[in-house]
Every structure is written in C-alpha cells, then in structure tokens.
Specification:
367 residues, mainly beta, 12-stranded parallel beta sheet, 9-stranded mixed beta sheet, elongated
Length: 367
Amino acid sequence: MSVLLACLLAVLLIVLPAGLSGASAADPPVFLGAAGSFAVLAGDSVVNTGASIITGDLGVTPGMTVSGFPPGDVTGTIHVNDAAAVQAQSDFALAYNDVASRTPTATVPTDLGATTLTPGVYSSLSGTFSNTGDLTLDAQGDPDAIFIFQAVSTLLTAGASTVTLTGGAQARNVFWQVGTSATLGAASTLSGTVLALASITAGAGMVVDGRFLARDGTVTLDSDTITRPTGTLSISAPQNANLGSAEPGAEVSARLGAVTVTDTRYASDAAWTATVSSTTFTTGGATPSETIAKSLIDYAPGAATATAGVAEFTPGTSGGLGSARTAFTASEGTGENSATWNPTITVTLPVGVRVGTYTATITHSVT
C-alpha cells in the first residue's frame, strides 16, 4: 500500500502494492477454527463400510465409536473424544451459529439442480434443499467468494448429482448449513463443508471436496472419498491512507487502518510472520529536498484489535522502516487462526523539506 504525506498543505497517502488486495468478499469468511483440520467430525459415531479415503483428520466427541478403519483409510489423525476433538466440536458450534445467522441474499427453490448461482447466502422456500442434477457455483473471478446454503431441516442429493465450481470458486468457501440431517446420493459429488446439527449419511462411492461435520449424530460412510479443502495464508491491508499534514521539522502521525492475516492452512503447527517495509516519501522531482527517507518513518503495530483461533499472537516492536521489520507473529497455533492490528505510522519531516504532497508505498507480507 502507498502512504501519502504532506507538509504544510501536503498529504501523506498509502497505496496498496500490486498483487495485494484490500478488498473483501461481499460476505466475510466462515471461521472453522480447530474444526478446519477435520475432514470428518461427528458427535456420536463415525461408521464406515468399504474402502473410504479420508484426507484430513477424523474425529468424534462426546461419542467414542469410530468403526470401519480399516478398510477405510485416514491420512490425518483419528481423534476419539480427546482434547482436539472437543476443541473442534466447540469451534464447529460457533461456525454453525455464524452460518445460520447470516442474512439471506435470496430465497430459492428447494431443488438446486440445473441452476447456476453466484456468491451469496441462500435460503430455501421449503426450508429444505435438494439437488437432483448439476448445481453450478460461479464465483465470477473472486476466489474469496462465499456461498452459504441455509436449510432449516434437511439436505438431500440424488445419486450421480454434482456440484460444479467455476469462475474461481473454492470448495473451502462453500458451506451447507443443515438444521437436522443430510442424506447424500450414491456416486454423487459435492463441494463444500456440510455442517449438520444431527447426522450425515453418504451413499456409496460419493466424492466430496469438503468436510462432513455433524454436531450430535453419526457420520455414515460407504466407500466414499472425502478430501478436506486446501487452505491459504493471506494478508490484507487498506488500499490507501492519509496521514495528514505538518510543518517541516515536525512529525505527522496517524493510524494506517486494519491489517489482517488469515491462516486457513489447517496446520497442526500454524505459525506465521508478517513483515512490513516502505519506500521513501517523494514529491515533485524527488530531489533531496523533495524526499523523506524511509528511516524517518516509524511503524508501531500496537496490540491486536481482534484475533481468532488457537495461537499466540505477538506484535513486533515499534521502530523505523529503514529496513523491513516484523509487524506481527503467530506461534503455537493449530487449525485456522487470524489476527488484526491497526498500526500507527509516524513520519518526521526534515527541516529543509519542500512543501508538497508526498507519497510512499508501505508493503505488508506474510510467510
């Protein structure tokens, strides 16, 4: 992002660097927390028949029953009423309530087959959803676009039905909120996370790019393939900021705006480091008297204004941006996490600086 600085009547502006985006999707992300690392999670039991393949963790709590593995295969960890499963169920409950409480964008017919939908929150005319054909979800070029389907009672899909993602749509951003139970047809395909209050039953040979999360009941599988979506590590910042104006030899200081790191990689060791760097401030012809060195730019991250997930979030120390410095870190985390901070930028104007409008680019990155 770029920062615009002014002395006297000049303004300090921050502009977002190419390749980053300060824009957000129309609907905010759904935060799954510790439940994000699970491909299958049940309240009572997980019962499998045949050679199901589960990519991601599998768990149950408060129930104690997981059967059918083998012949089923789990590439993650099986959690039976342990601390990880308990935390996942707790975070799942929060996510369910979030999804269920969002205001619908539109109310649509019960059967979603042979339709194409753009991002939004959809409720059903009948309180239930079914898919008897091919449902297409078109993100219209936005990989962060959110699709939410709110079913007061059931979700039913026919055998061989499909959910197709186009326009950059991501399975990690599709959510099926089910007030009772979901029954999914044999040899069908589904994209997204099913969040059911009761049970989920999958027909034989089903392929799921998503998750089965059941709050109270049983998840029943039969030679199915369930692949937990791949998450991302991203950072967003304001597109611009105006720090105001000051006389030569004085300081100008202002908040930059919210900077947010979102980690949905669902890692068992979810750690990241956000860094910040800056260019010099210049105006006009960028002569020495029209330049403010980046060593005169001070960055103070301050405490986090919002956090989510299981991690230890630590702000970097305040200091000059003569070279890149740590803005914020996360450590000792699992599953999803996020942190937001609102840094203060302070610029000391040299005594001999010319009056004018000064701009610089402040870049946030995360690894």
